[in-house]
Specification:
14 helices; Rossmann fold; alpha/beta; eight-stranded mixed beta sheet; 2 domains; 413 residues; 24 strands
C-alpha cells in the first residue's frame, strides 16, 4: 500500500503481498538465491530479481523467471516499456531490497554508487530498506577495503545479515559462508514488519509441549509440535512487535528475528515466561503445558524388576502459568485444547484465568496437525468461529484480535 501524500510504501508487515527486489551477485552461493526467491514467492511475495553479470556465470536468469513468474533483469536499461520505467519502477515499488549473496565486488560498487547494472541502479534509486547478505572467501571478507565498504553501507542504513563460519567453496574453513535462508528470511521478516501497529511493544509467546522428567532418559509429555506458537510469534513480528518466544525441545521450526528462550519443564517455562512478561504488552500462552509433574525425579534410569508388573508414579500439580502472572496492563491470551465440552471448558478458563481472549480448539484435531479449527472467545464480545485453516492463518487472526484489544484499551473505549 502506498501513502498518496508522501509516495512512500506503507507496509503492515509479512511476506504476503510484499514487493521484494532481490539482487544476486557473482559468487558460488548465487545458487542459494533461487531457494530464497522460491520461498518468498510461496509466502505470497512479488519478487523482482536482478542478476549481476558475474551471477549469470553461476545461475541462469531462466531459473528465476520460472520460480517468480516475472522477468529477470541484468542490464541497467532493462524493463522499460508497457508502462514500466525499468529500475525506477522496481526501486519505487520495492518494500525491501535484499542482496544475497553480496560479493566483495558488489559491496564495493554499492559503496561507490555505481549504476552500470540493474542491481546498482535500483540500490541507488530506492528508499526501501536495504539488506545485504555477504558471502566470499574468508580473507577477502576481512580485507580492510571490504570492511570499510561494509561500514560505509551500514552508515547509510543498510542492514547486514552476517555470514556463517564453515567450509568454503575453496575447501578452506572460514566465516564467509552465506547465512542460512532461515536467518536471511527471518531478518527480512523483521524489517518488513518494523513499522507495524505493534512497533515498540514486546509480545511474549510460549510454544511447544513441556516435558516432565521421570529419570535422566524418560519424561511425561504431549504431542504438541509448537507450530501454532511459532506461527503466532511470526505474525507478531509481522505486526512490528519485539517478540520473545519461550519454546520447548519439541519445537523444531526455525525461529529467527525474535528472542528465543529454551525451556523443558513447566516450572522452567513458568520462570521464563514470568521474567519475559515484565516489560511486555501481551502474553500469548500457546504452549501445551503439563498439568502435573512427577513428585520425584530419579537420578538414575528406572529399571524394571523381573517380577514387576506395575510401576506407580506420584504426580503433583503444576502451577497454572497464565493465571498466576498478574503484570499490570498485560493482555493475556490463552488456549483451550479440549476433547469434550470445548466451548464450556474454554469459557470457564477465560473467566478463571483473567484472559482477554481464549482460543478454543479440538485437541484431537489440532495437536500435531498443520491446520486448526478455532473459536475465539472474549469476556464481553460474541465468539468468533474460524473454519479449518492453516495454523499460520489462524495465527494472523489471533494477532489481529490482539491489536484490536490493545488499541481499544489504549483509546480508553
Amino acid at each position: 500500500m502506498r501513502d498518496e501524500t508522501s509516495g512512500q510504501v506503507v507496509r503492515s508487515g509479512g511476506f504476503g503481498g510484499a514487493r521484494i527486489a532481490l539482487g544476486v551477485s557473482g559468487g558460488i552461493a548465487a545458487y542459494r538465491a533461487a531457494d530464497l526467491a522460491s520461498r518468498l514467492v510461496r509466502a505470497g511475495s512479488i519478487v523482482d530479481v536482478m542478476l549481476t553479470e558475474g551471477a549469470t556465470r553461476f545461475i541462469q536468469p531462466l531459473t528465476f523467471e520460472a520460480l517468480t513468474g516475472r522477468p529477470v533483469y541484468t542490464g541497467p536499461f532493462d524493463g522499460w516499456g508497457d508502462g514500466a520505467s525499468g529500475h525506477v519502477s522496481i526501486a519505487r515499488d520495492a518494500d525491501a531490497m535484499l542482496i544475497a549473496p553480496a560479493t566483495a565486488n558488489t559491496m564495493a560498487r554499492l559503496a561507490q554508487g555505481f549504476t552500470d547494472d540493474m542491481l546498482g541502479a535500483v540500490a541507488l534509486s530506492t528508499t526501501a530498506p536495504l539488506l545485504i547478505a555477504p558471502a566470499m572467501e574468508h580473507h577477502m571478507r576481512h580485507h580492510p577495503a571490504t570492511q570499510q565498504n561494509l561500514r560505509t553501507l551500514v552508515d547509510r542504513g543498510a542492514i547486514v545479515v552476517p555470514p556463517e563460519s564453515g567450509r568454503l567453496a575453496s575447501g578452506a574453513i572460514g566465516d564467509g559462508r552465506l547465512a542460512s535462508p532461515d536467518v536471511i528470511l527471518g531478518t527480512l521478516r523483521t524489517v518488513l514488519g518494523r513499522h507495524g501497529p505493534l512497533q515498540g511493544r514486546r509480545v511474549v509467546v510460549s510454544a511447544g509441549g513441556t516435558r516432565e522428567a521421570l529419570d535422566p532418559v524418560r519424561y511425561i509429555g504431549n504431542r504438541s509440535s509448537g507450530r501454532m506458537g511459532v506461527a503466532i510469534a511470526e505474525a507478531a513480528l509481522d505486526a512490528g512487535a519485539e517478540v520473545t518466544i519461550v519454546a520447548t525441545p519439541s519445537v523444531l521450526m526455525a525461529m529467527h528475528g525474535m528472542d528465543v528462550v529454551q525451556v523443558e519443564s513447566a516450572v522452567e517455562m513458568h520462570h521464563a515466561v514470568s521474567n519475559a512478561s515484565r516489560d511486555a504488552v501481551a502474553l500469548i500462552m500457546a504452549a501445551a503445558v503439563s498439568d502435573f509433574r512427577s513428585r520425584t525425579h530419579a537420578t538414575q534410569k528406572i529399571k524394571k524388576k523381573p517380577d514387576q508388573d506395575l510401576l506407580t508414579i506420584q504426580l503433583v500439580k503444576n502451577q497454572d502459568i497464565v493465571a498466576s502472572i498478574q503484570e499490570p496492563g498485560l493482555v493475556k491470551i490463552g488456549f483451550a485444547a479440549e476433547t469434550q465440552d470445548l466451548l464450556l471448558n474454554a469459557q470457564r478458563k477465560l473467566e478463571e484465568k483473567g484472559l482477554a481472549m481464549i482460543v478454543a480448539n479440538d485437541a484431537l484435531e489440532t495437536i500435531g496437525s498443520n491446520q486448526s479449527r478455532a473459536t475465539l472467545l472474549f469476556p464481553r464480545r460474541d465468539p468468533v468461529t474460524l473454519p479449518a485453516l492453516p495454523k499460520e492463518e489462524v495465527a494472523r487472526h489471533i494477532v489481529a484480535e490482539l491489536i484490536s484489544i490493545i488499541m481499544e484499551r489504549d483509546s480508553g473505549a
